[in-house]
Amino acid sequence: MHLTGVGRRYGLRGPWILRDVGLRVPRGALLRIEGANGSGKSTLLRLLAGIDAPSAGRITGRPRTAYVPERFPAALPLTAVDYLTRLGRVHGLRRQAAARAAGEWLERFGAAGHAHTPLSRLSKGTGQKVAVAQGLVGRPELLVLDEAWTGLDPASRRILDRAVLDRVADGASVVFVDHDPRRLAGDCHAVHRVAAGRLSEVAAAAPRSRVVRVEAEGTGPLPERLPGDPVREPLGGAVRLTVADADSDALLHALLTARPSWHIRSVAAADAPEEPRR
């Protein structure tokens, strides 16, 4: 996707929030947007997501996009699972697949017990989990996150971190804003800053994270909790586990010391992973 000479202002004579913005969002890129409060970060994300239209310039090549706003519209007259299922349908999933994906994401974020709770009755934290899940349920080609980690508990923040990296590894693009400067710091391909209505790159692409793929087989159940929260792909009677390089030794140790232990068939490293679909 390309932004060329993009500007945005509200009203014919309103002040320019953004001016002459140029940005390329490559496929499989993780981009961080920084800037002071009121600098126009959220306006830029809304333009990327297609929520707002530019007042000047043009945006081309926008892929299928999901957007997680800073404030979740919890007043919608739907339950959590109905809302997520509808969003999955919007992204082209069949109803059964959309409902299954909705349930899986609610369970992953520890909110399965609230699947049939109306959105208006969810706590702020659970509502934020639903907000994040709606951005992931349809496996978008572009994911736009505006302070999506705010309001999540530490475990859910880690799950979202992993989900973001999974989408990037699968070839999608992710553009995000977050108040924590450490958020995915070692994984961003570029960092851009909004200041005085202009956008500039402040950090070049970081080296892509290395991952390790472990193929293993065992006679017992695979432990539910494994170091690094690896992506799991069934392979007949075996399983392929994809995990960050930093967690690979701990993962191997956990497999070998499980009762019964797992046999390691192969271990392979990769720089640009094409992780399996969950």
TrEMBL record:
UniProt entry tagged with the keyword Glycosyltransferase: no
Keywords associated with the record: ATP-binding, Nucleotide-binding, Transport
One Pfam assignment: ABC_tran
Keyword Manganese: no
A molecular function GO annotation: ATP binding
Residues covered by the ABC transporter domain: 1-221
Gene3D superfamilies: P-loop containing nucleotide triphosphate hydrolases (3.40.50.300)
Matches recorded under InterPro entries: AAA+_ATPase, ABC_transporter-like_ATP-bd, ABC_Transporter_VariousFunc, P-loop_NTPase
Classification via PROSITE patterns: ABC_TRANSPORTER_2
Matches recorded under PANTHER family: ABC TRANSPORTER ATP-BINDING PROTEIN ALBC-RELATED
Protein name per the record: ATP-binding cassette domain-containing protein
Source organism (scientific name): Streptomyces luteireticuli
Higher taxonomy: Bacteria, Bacillati, Actinomycetota, Actinomycetes, Kitasatosporales
